[in-house]
Amino acid sequence: MSETIPDTATLIPLDNVDPALVEALLDRAFEPERHTRTAYKVREGTEWLPGLSFAALDSDEMLVGSIQCWPVALTDAEGRAHPLIMVGPVAVLPELQGQGFGKALVSASLAGIDARAPLPQVLIGDPEYYERWGFASEATGGWSLPGPFEQHRLLVRSENPAVLPREGMLGPWLR
């Protein structure tokens, strides 16, 4: 899926951006209390994946959006870890939301996943927004997270949903 952003915008690898600028963007998009959210507990202790994480810059080369992806795992009842990629946070400056930056960032990130052996992708988000990329909650009904969450917002995208455990705890993938 190809999404367009304003002609004056550019997507670049997130590791080319000062981490302090990314943190400031995330604070504006989600408030500083974002660190207490369950998604942060799921990816705690891991580093974001540079090859799947991007920044959106405007015509003045100001950071206006970002996406990060993280290595996580669903640990099943037998203690086996099933690796997944956690997509998000997807952040866009509040005054620029609705202009296509988020769609372009998600599309760029998902396009970077190796099609020869794609890991399933998981996120916590609005089903109506993320279904355009194939994310759904049908396979996540028996999954748990290390904190509060709304079950219908726990979404997964997988080439072969049959390989996903029906039950398990989502958390960091610490290899």
From TrEMBL:
Source superkingdom: Bacteria
Pfam families associated with the record: Acetyltransf_7
EC nos: 2.3.-.-
N-acetyltransferase domain boundaries: 9-167
InterPro entries: Acyl_CoA_acyltransferase, GNAT_dom
Protein's UniProt keywords contain S-adenosyl-L-methionine: no
Keywords, ordered alphabetically: Acyltransferase, Transferase
SUPFAM superfamilies cross-referenced by the UniProt entry: Acyl-CoA N-acyltransferases (Nat)
GO molecular function: acyltransferase activity
Top class in the EC scheme: transferase
Protein name: GNAT family N-acetyltransferase
Species this chain originates from: Novosphingobium clariflavum
